[in-house]
Specification:
The protein is of the alpha/beta class. The protein has helices at about 10-20, 35-40, 60-65, 85, 105-115, 170-180, 220-225; strands spanning about 1-5, 25-30, 50-55, 75-80, 95-100, 120-125, 130-135, 140-145, 145-155, 155-160, 165-170, 185-190, 190-195, 200, 205-210, 210-215. A hairpin with a 2-residue loop joins strand 15 (about 205-210) and strand 16 (about 210-215).
Length: about 230
């Protein structure tokens, strides 16, 4: 799991870093003292878990996380236990650490986050034509030819097929490497399409059944090549 720390007090930052160094399955990507700095980071990076202080400059941790679309799992940290009740009203918060806390309590919180977190990977493909996708602790069989397109929205991917939509934490970069290159192509920083589902192209837009998607300028050449358009 990847994680970041949003904590304005340096001693508390250092304590979290020390505890994280003892858990090899957690990868610390960045540390921030202000929520707004982390807000910019969320726009271009995927994070699985955030250690978030309640009392931060400019905006509280609780108010900040309400502004994040599709927020990752959150472990709250603060010296004020009275915030615990309101924090658990948010589904994304998995635990609440009251300062000062020891490594045993920290580890318990991390284990809760790991139990809740379902790594969104392709697992146990049965044939070359299908995959199983683990979403919300349920294995969904996806027929590749039925995928219309994949859309990225910050930390989340949504796969749209002929019959369903599935959203989960991942990146387009991972999926462009997993999908058959002969059939799938990236057309925009936010979209991968199934070339066999294309109905028409008009200017810088492509139509997948009733869906109209943008074509990024840097991706158009590869798209036309895949569609054998000269």
């Amino acid at each position: 799991m990847t994680c970041i720390i949003i904590e304005d007090e340096l001693p508390a930052q250092n304590l979290l870093k020390n505890y994280l160094s003892k858990i090899p399955e957690l990868q610390l990507l960045a540390t921030f003292q202000a929520a707004m700095d982390a807000n910019n980071y969320f726009k271009t990076n995927i994070v699985d878990l955030v250690f978030l202080d309640v009392n931060l400059p400019d905006i509280s941790g609780l108010d900040f996380i309400k502004t994040v679309k599709n927020p990752p799992a959150i472990i709250m940290t603060t010296a004020y236990p009275e915030y615990a009740v309101s924090s658990f009203e948010l589904d994304t918060i998995v635990d609440y650490l009251v300062k000062p806390f020891g490594f045993d309590r920290f580890l318990k919180a991390v284990n809760k986050a790991e139990d809740r977190f379902v790594k969104q990977d392709v697992v146990n493909p049965t044939t070359e034509d299908s995959i199983f996708l683990n979403v919300d602790k349920t294995l969904h069989k996806i027929i590749l030819k039925d995928i219309l397109f994949l859309e990225s929205d910050r930390n989340y991917i949504t796969i749209t097929t002929k019959t369903q939509k599935l959203s989960f934490i991942d990146s387009l970069k991972n999926w462009i490497e997993k999908l058959p290159s002969a059939q799938f192509v990236q057309i925009h920083k936010s979209f991968i399409i199934n070339t066999k589902s294309v109905t028409k192209i008009s200017g810088n837009e492509i139509f997948i059944t009733t869906h109209r998607l943008p074509i990024g300028r840097t991706y158009k050449g590869e798209l036309l090549k895949k569609l054998r358009i000269l």
